[in-house]
Specification:
Elements: E1 4-7, H1 11-23, E2 27-33, H2 40-44, E3 47-52, H3 63-73, E4 77-79, H4 89-98, E5 101-102, H5 107-114, H6 116-125, E6 133-134, H7 141-151, E7 155-163, E8 166-171, H8 174-192, E9 197-201, E10 207-215, E11 221-233, E12 236-242, H9 249-265, E13 270-278, E14 284-290, H10 297-304, H11 308-316, E15 333-340, E16 342-343, E17 349-350, E18 353-354, E19 357-359, E20 364-365, E21 371-376, E22 383-384, E23 391-399, H12 402-414, E24 417-419, H13 425-433, H14 435-438, H15 446-450, H16 462-487, E25 489-490, E26 493-494, E27 500-505, E28 508-516, E29 520-525, E30 531-535, E31 543-548, E32 551-560, E33 563-568, E34 571-578, H17 580-586, E35 600-602, E36 607-612, E37 619-620, E38 625-631, E39 634-639, E40 644-649, E41 656-657, E42 662-666
Parallel strand pairs: 1-2, 1-4, 2-3, 4-5
Antiparallel strand pairs: 6-9, 7-8, 7-9, 10-11, 10-13, 11-12, 12-15, 13-14, 15-23, 16-17, 18-22, 19-24, 20-21, 21-23, 25-26, 27-28, 27-34, 28-29, 29-30, 30-31, 31-32, 32-33, 33-34, 35-42, 36-38, 36-41, 37-40, 38-39, 40-42
Helix pairs in contact: 4-5, 5-6, 7-8, 12-13
Length: 667
């Protein structure tokens, strides 16, 4: 067995590998950049080695720096995690030359499958269904447009060495093909050091379903079921589940057998994933093979009971797999939600900053048998850096069936507290409640189709509004009780708390009467039947469980001036609870209008301006590219919302900007 593993990665995947290594009694070594000196993976490892400046191009993907860390610590194996050097054949070769075990596949398999152009040719030769496309290298944007026209729009422009949604664009016409080709090349070069591009047909109404494979070095390769990864945004997975709600056993077996055949064709061992695009009639086409552990591997672990990291380590140590295909059983259902440092209210643009609050839900098996798991690499008080991927955590739930797993995820998201950065928790909660998602009617266009104008929060329906109004009344009651305790009596008079209140948020107003008890009581809204309410909330707490008419609600609470901010299931309301007389006067108050920024282009995220494509005095048209901002390894093109004339440009290429900092003004 291996004695010391160096993890050539960072964040949650480094923590994940360390956890299994500790369980197996294997020592661990972390590597870290300047930005990660205080990171969680550094704290968890037995040893840690500094490898350079914050940019990954100067630290995490510099092979010689990783090799130097290995020599300093005497590690006899390396786990690469995912991203960075995980699919770099030169890195695997360098380890082999040093006599260091690579916890991953053989070099030949990485070379064959890591290059998407080569992998598609090999897949076709192995009898695997493939998507029509141009597998040769593309010289320039003109050739890209020509090829796209021959294939027929829409097409997918992809980086040959890409992954994680980087270096990928969908083009529906010549202009988008030309622009997408250049952006894909730029992202691919910055993220992978390889700017080769290929083009393939984009399958409409597609599902993204992948097969987990696992093999040893003695010729055994197994498939461990599938994962549904269709909930994507900008080609980046957001929610995954296992198994897929779409596949039947016949299709699952066919996909699994093709994945195994491809793996055997390249002499594969260790864990890997064969990704397919599946259309509405269950035709499936090979997309790519990831010769590494996938981000979403926990859902497979939850339904199979197999620790994939442990199996990777054992295979790298020369062991045979201790089970066969007939031993693989898919048990129950698992969901994974990726918590990203991305602001859904700003079109999911990256967010950075300090985690002023980070309180995940309780992990483990609950009283109802459901399981909560949270893979993370951050902690309260830590920082989210602009230099790396914006994923903060992977929240997973397991239950005997799909709807129970979704409901368990909803509760876990309700209980997950994150403050200090923009994040996508509200959006994840909204998806869990979406009828189409709950019905399993998924495609990779789900987010684009169901949230065409972006995400602006969930508008409470009447039942939800009544629940939130009830929570607001209970919070207000607790605040009033505290005020009475503080003020006590004045002379012979003790302050009396009223029963009648008016709750307002948005354009809704509810007249409520509270019959209070020690922890709740009854609330009547107008002439409706009274509902039972109870709460354990006390002033100062940011989260509490409320029982409203028999429904338990995990609600996040903030006091914002005189308002009570409540967040639940993707809803975010600022409720005012007033006496009837004060509510009457409040209706007479003027509404404060936000500042007018309609003639300004403001930076939507912290990042670096890599390109300004217009000049002062230039007339621009709606949709025209104005500037490009790079943040967290992704290029974001900022476009004109309407026709106008540029009055002033306030930045230069290379400028580092904060959120809402001025880029340019219009006349």
């Amino acid at each position: 067995m291996l004695s010391k593993i160096l993890i050539a990665n960072r964040g949650e995947i480094a923590c994940r590998v360390i956890r299994t290594a500790k369980k197996m009694g294997i020592a661990t070594v972390a590597v870290y950049s300047d930005a990660d000196a205080d990171a969680l993976h550094v704290t968890l490892a037995d040893e840690a080695v500094h490898i350079g400046p914050a940019p990954s191009s100067q630290s995490y993907i510099v092979i010689e720096k990783i090799l130097d860390a290995i020599r300093k610590t005497g590690a006899d194996a390396v786990h690469p995690g995912y991203g960075f050097l995980s699919e770099n054949a030169a890195f695997a070769q360098a380890l082999e030359k040093e006599g260091i075990a690579f916890i991953g596949p053989p070099v030949g398999a990485i070379e064959a499958m890591g290059d998407k152009i080569t992998s598609k040719k090999l897949a076709a030769e192995a009898g695997v269904s493939t998507v029509p496309g141009h597998m040769g290298l593309i010289a320039d944007a003109d050739e890209a447009v020509k090829i796209a026209g021959e294939i027929g729009y829409p097409v997918m422009i992809k980086a040959s060495a890409g992954g994680g949604g980087k270096g990928m664009r969908i083009a529906w016409n010549d202009a988008e093909a030309r622009e997408g080709f250049q952006s894909s090349k730029n992202e691919a070069k910055n993220s992978f050091g390889d700017d080769r591009i290929f083009i393939e047909k984009f399958v409409t109404q597609p599902r993204h379903i992948e097969i987990q494979v696992l093999g040893d070095s003695y010729g055994t390769v197994l498939y461990l079921g599938e994962r549904e990864c269709s909930i994507q945004r900008r080609n980046q997975k957001v929610i995954e589940e296992a198994p897929s709600p779409f596949l039947d056993e016949k299709t699952r077996r066919a996909m699994g057998e093709q994945a195994v055949a491809l793996s055997k064709a390249v002499g594969y061992h260790s864990a890997g994933t064969v990704e397919f695009i599946v259309d509405g009639t269950k035709n499936f086409y090979f997309l790519e093979m990831n010769t590494r552990l996938q981000v979403e591997h926990p859902v497979t672990e939850l339904i199979t009971g197999i620790d994939l990291v442990e199996q990777m380590i054992r295979v790298a140590a020369g062991e045979r797999l201790s089970f066969g295909q007939e031993d693989i059983r898919l048990n129950g259902w698992a969901i994974e939600s990726r918590l990203y440092a991305e602001d859904p209210y700003r079109n999911f643009l990256p967010s950075i900053g300090r985690l002023t609050r980070y309180r995940p839900p309780v992990e483990g098996t609950g009283a109802d048998g459901t399981i909560v798991r949270n893979d993370t690499g951050v902690f309260e008080g830590g920082e989210i850096s602009m230099y790396y991927d914006p994923m903060v955590a992977k929240l997973c739930t397991w239950a005997p069936d799909r709807l129970a797993a979704i409901d368990a995820m909803s509760r876990a998201l309700d209980d997950f507290e994150v403050e200090g950065i923009g994040h996508n928790l509200p959006f994840l909660s909204a998806v869990m409640q979406h009828d189409r998602f709950r019905a399993g009617r998924l495609t990779t266009a789900f987010i684009a189709e169901e949230f065409p104008d972006g995400f602006q929060g969930v508008e409470p329906d009447m039942a939800s509004a009544i629940k939130l109004a009830s929570v607001a009344v209970l919070v207000h009651q607790a605040l009033q009780n505290r005020a009475v305790q503080i003020s006590g009596t004045i002379g012979n008079h003790r302050r009396v708390i009223g029963k009648d209140w008016v709750v307002s948020f948005g354009d809704r107003t509810f007249a409520a009467t509270l019959d209070a008890s020690a922890d709740g009581g009854y609330i009547r809204f107008g002439d409706a039947e009274p509902i039972t309410v109870a709460s354990d909330w006390t002033p100062g707490r940011s989260h509490a469980t409320f029982n409203i008419d028999g429904t338990a609600m995990g609600v996040k609470i903030d006091l914002v001036g005189t308002a009570i901010r409540l967040r639940w299931r993707g809803m975010d309301v600022k409720a005012h609870v007033r006496s009837p007389r004060v509510a009457e006067l409040a209706r007479l108050m003027p509404v404060k209008l936000p500042p007018d920024t309609s003639k300004m282009l403001l930076c939507p995220m912290p990042g670096v301006i890599t390109m300004v494509t217009v000049e002062a005095g230039e007339t621009v048209e709606a949709g025209q590219a104005l500037a490009t901002v790079e943040a967290m390894k992704m290029e974001n093109i900022l476009r004109a919302e309407r026709r106008g004339v540029v009055k002033r440009i306030a930045v230069l290429a290379g400028s580092s900007l904060a959120v809402d900092e001025l880029i340019m003004e219009f006349e």
